[in-house]
Structure formats: C-alpha cells, structure tokens
C-alpha cells in the first residue's frame, strides 16, 4: 500500500528551471517553458499520483498523471468497446479495456531507465511500433505453443485463426501507447514523436500536467464512457428480447 500522499506547493523562481532540469532529464529551455506556463505558487499533485515519481518531495515530472492517462485510454477505446459489446464479443471488449488501459502509462518508464531522457524515445511512434510488434509476436508464439500442446500439431488452416488475435493484441498495445502520447502533447512540455528522424516538438499547451481538475475529469469521463459501452448494449439486448 502507498503511504498517504502529501500536497506540495512549488514556488517558481528564476533558478527553479536550472535546478530541476537535470532531475527531469530535460533541456533547460523546455523546463523554462513549462515553468512559465505553470506560473507561480501553483499547487501540484503529490508524489504517488504519477505512474513513476523521481522524488520523495518537491517537483514532480511535468507529465500527465496516471489517472489522466488511464482515463484518456478508456475514453478513446470506449467506442470500440461499444461495438464489440453490440457484436456480442464482450470478452474481447474486456480484454481490450484491460490492455489499452494497462499499457497507457508504460512510456513513463523512461524515468527509471539509465541514459534515457524523459519524453524521449519511449514517447515516439518508433517505440509504439516496436512495442506493438513485440506484443504481436509474443502473443502469436504463445498461441502456437498452446495449440501444439493441445492438438500435438499445427495445421496450415489454423494459422489465420491464431494470427488475427495476435494482430488484435498488437493493435490494442499500439492504441494504448498512442493515448499516452496524446495525453502528453496537450501539456506545455509536449513531445517529439518522430525523433530522432524529426526533432519537431508538438504541444497544444491546453493544460498543465499537474492540473487535478483535468486529470480527474479525464478519469471520470473514461470510466463513464466505458460503463456506457458495457451497459447500453445490454439494454439494447434486453429490449430486443
């Protein structure tokens, strides 16, 4: 269990970006931009509300918080979950919800990786491609081994029935990771999704990462949309009987 989180107030000063830039593994100019956007004496969420946290006290990383990433992932996947439930594939919908939401915070693992800058390679389309490909390959390998263990052999006719679910898992992993990038691009620090091929930074500067209202709103919206995607098809099925 986590200890009870504490609130921390950060007062921005001219020295703040210089002090925290090495901790956040970001260029000083990016931290300057984020600090300026956040303003002075802004209360930020405490350690423990971010998927990975660097420090016990003080400034947390300028990223979308865990609940915001979960909520956005659920919100994006809810239309597909609705279609799956309408098609009587509730099992696939549940698996999709778990995978998409489960992988959404993974790009922030860069905070615990040596020689990897935050919002660097794990926040690019290349990472999404590699991760989804690995997920597809691992799922297919597991399916092949399972089929061989049960049937003792693997016929050519059964291969498509194994490949399609594996591709589906890869797609869900890619979708969940993509929602993380969407969540980060709305913050002042933004991301460079095509680096190192293209170092253009994308940021919409819609909200700070520490905005509890936005994070909570995304989380509640994601839960509500997911609940609707599960419940409404059941209502339709009941009315149709």
Q: Which SSEs are present, and which pair or pack?
A:
Elements: E1 8-10, H1 16-24, H2 28-38, E2 42-44, H3 66-86, H4 90-103, H5 125-151, H6 159-185, H7 212-240
Antiparallel strand pairs: 1-2
Helix pairs in contact: 1-2, 3-4, 3-6, 3-7, 4-6, 5-6
Describe the protein.
It is flat and about 50 Å long. The protein is mainly α and 241 residues long. α3 runs parallel beside α7 (212-240), α4 (90-103) crosses α6 and α5 packs antiparallel against α6 (159-185). It has 7 helices and 2 strands, in the order βααβααααα. 37% of the residues are buried.
Query: Main sheet?
Result: 2 strands, antiparallel
**Backbone structural class:** mainly alpha
The end-to-end distance, rounded to whole angstroms, is 46 Å
Contiguous helical run count: 7
Element order: H for helix, E for strand: EHHEHHHHH
Output the strand order for the largest sheet. Answer: 1-2
How does the overall form come out from the CA principal axes?
A: flat
- The portion of residues forming beta strands comes to under 5%
* Total beta strand runs: 2
